[in-house]
Each structure stands twice: as structure tokens, then as C-alpha cells.
């Protein structure tokens, strides 16, 4: 990277002089890197202008999930949920990020009971009393991405499923508490993992969260088995998702050979997932989508 002089315009595009903008920030990153820590490069640090655009996308994402929360019930097909998502997204002038992403055929992922993630909506799949389902919505607005998901209990569910959904949400909350400027991604990961294990559950290891904002999936990859004090430094301006998949039984999973997308628990026991999208700031984490 070309050396920036102190009186040059800052690399972030703010229009301010480097010395008044990101000089101290870069010195801090360089110091941490010199100590052997993994630090984000400038491409992962969102500018104020980018953050505002990403927030606009996130507002649509949240509104979609709010609509799903109001209308989801037994007897609804996952195909109907897909049509809700497509309609609300496009009416807002946005695009459903999953649609045609690497061949994914629908606008949303709907994963039921022992489906871990990436479930494909269908008019043949009818939600039943006692199901738990994850609805994972991702939105592109003017080239800016947002992503979040929620769990829904359909009617009266078993106490075991209800507890799994509750503890999984608590895992996300425990992780969020550890998102602090100049901390480490592993701080969040360990908090998630410890809470799941303490409650008798297992964290899916192969699939995790991701950076987001200018692309659907950016660095860093966000796992949930890391140790505190390790992993990428959480620099202000980073945006990523916290979305652990927590299994009632074993952590083992497999991909459906028939559709190439849907991921199931190996033992057939239920799985749950909540996803939030988080901005790192000096004042603490800001949840952009939930």
C-alpha cells in the first residue's frame, strides 16, 4: 500500500486529512499486527457513508422479518414465506440476496426442526404445530448488503425445542456482549461456545458467520469455537454476523445430496439459529439487523 503522508486525504474517503482521521487507527492496527495479532485490512473497515447505506438495507431486512413474525403460523407453506419475502423486498426497491446466489433458487432460507440451515422453500412444505423454523433473510439495496435470521415456534412446541430456541438466542446475546473495539473475534466465539456447552448443546463447527456490507460474504469468517484473545482484531468500522447454529445432539451435519443446499443434523435431532448483524464502534457494538 502506498505510504500516506499525514496531510494527505485519508484513505477512507472522508475528505479529512489523514492525521485528523485514520492515522492513529492505523498506528494501533500496525502495533497489534507487530505483536502477532490478525488485523483487518482497510477493505473491511466501512466508511461512515457506507455504514449509512448498509443501515438502509438493514432496515428493509428487519421489516421483512417483522412481517414474517406477524404472519407465520401452522398451515403456512415455506413457499408462501418465500413469496412474502420477494414481494416486500422488491416493493422496497431492493433485491433478495439469496435468489440465484450460486444457484440457490429462492429468495429466503427456511430451515425446519433438524434442518440446520439453507433450507429451500417449497409449496409442498407446510408448517405444522410443534415445528421450529429459522427464516434467514438477506437483502441488497443499491449494492449494499444486510443479513439476519430469527427462529419461530409454530404453535405449542415441546419444552425441549422451546429451550433449544431460547438458549440459542442467549448464545448470540452472550457473544454480542464480548464484541468490543480492539478486542478479538475469539472473545465472542468463546462466549457463544461456552454457553451452548454449559446447557448441554453442541455448536456446528463447519458453518459460521461472515463479514458483510459491500458483499454478501466478506472476511472474516466467524466461527464459534475460537478462544478469547485470539482471532481477528475487532476494529471500529467492521461489520459481521453472529449466527451460531446450535444442535440439541451431536455437532455432526450433512448436506442433502438431492438439492445440494439443505444441511441437516446427522442424528436427526433439532437445531436452532439466530442471526444478527453487528457494527463495531468505539462505544460498543451496534446491532444493525436482527
What percent strand? 15-25%
Give the ordered list of helices and strands: HHHEEEEEHHEEEEEEEEEE
- What is the 3D form? globular
* Intertermini distance: 36 Å
Report Rg.
20 Å
**Helical/strand content category:** alpha+beta
Biggest sheet descriptor: 4 strands, antiparallel
Average residue-wise pLDDT: 97
Specify the helix fraction band.
25-40%
Compute the number of helices: 5
Count of distinct strands? 15
Low-confidence segments: none
Can you characterise this structure?
The protein has 290 residues and is an alpha+beta fold. The chain is 29% helix and 23% strand. Helix 2 runs antiparallel to helix 3 and helix 4 packs antiparallel against helix 5. The longest helix is centred in the first third of the chain and has 24 residues. The two termini are 36 Å apart. The model has no long low-confidence stretch (mean pLDDT 97).
Summary, kept brief:
The protein is an alpha+beta fold. It has helices at 23-34, 48-71, 78-91, 159-177, 185-198, and strands spanning 95-96, 109-112, 115-117, 132-141, 144-153, 202-203, 209-211, 218-222, 239-242, 245-247, 253-255, 263-265, 271-273, 276-281, 284-289. Helices cover 29% and strands 23% of the residues.
Amino acid at each position: 500500500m502506498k505510504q500516506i503522508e499525514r496531510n494527505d486525504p485519508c484513505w477512507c474517503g472522508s475528505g479529512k486529512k489523514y492525521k485528523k482521521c485514520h492515522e492513529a487507527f492505523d498506528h494501533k492496527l500496525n502495533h497489534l499486527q507487530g505483536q502477532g495479532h490478525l488485523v483487518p485490512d482497510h477493505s473491511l473497515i466501512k466508511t461512515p457513508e457506507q455504514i449509512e447505506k448498509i443501515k438502509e438495507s438493514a432496515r428493509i431486512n428487519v421489516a421483512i422479518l417483522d412481517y414474517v413474525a406477524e404472519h407465520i403460523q401452522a398451515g403456512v407453506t415455506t413457499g408462501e414465506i418465500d413469496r412474502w419475502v420477494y414481494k416486500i423486498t422488491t416493493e422496497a426497491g431492493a433485491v433478495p440476496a439469496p435468489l440465484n446466489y450460486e444457484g440457490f433458487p429462492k429468495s429466503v432460507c427456511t430451515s425446519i426442526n433438524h434442518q440446520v440451515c439453507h433450507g429451500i422453500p417449497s409449496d409442498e412444505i407446510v408448517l405444522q404445530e410443534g415445528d421450529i423454523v429459522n427464516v434467514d433473510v438477506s437483502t441488497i439495496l443499491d449494492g449494499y448488503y444486510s443479513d439476519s435470521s430469527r427462529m419461530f415456534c409454530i404453535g405449542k412446541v415441546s419444552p425441549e425445542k422451546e429451550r433449544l430456541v431460547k438458549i440459542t438466542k442467549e448464545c448470540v446475546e452472550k457473544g454480542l456482549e464480548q464484541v468490543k473495539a480492539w478486542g478479538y473475534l475469539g472473545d465472542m466465539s468463546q462466549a457463544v461456545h461456552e454457553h451452548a456447552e454449559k446447557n448441554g448443546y453442541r455448536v456446528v463447527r463447519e458453518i459460521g458467520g461472515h463479514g458483510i456490507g459491500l458483499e454478501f460474504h466478506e472476511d472474516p469468517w466467524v466461527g464459534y469455537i475460537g478462544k478469547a484473545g485470539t482471532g481477528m482484531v475487532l476494529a471500529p468500522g467492521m461489520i459481521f454476523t453472529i449466527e451460531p447454529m446450535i444442535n440439541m445432539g451431536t455437532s455432526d451435519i450433512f448436506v442433502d445430496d438431492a438439492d445440494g443446499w439443505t444441511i441437516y443434523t446427522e442424528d436427526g435431532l433439532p437445531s436452532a439459529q439466530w442471526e444478527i448483524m453487528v457494527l463495531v464502534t468505539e462505544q460498543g457494538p451496534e446491532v444493525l439487523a436482527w
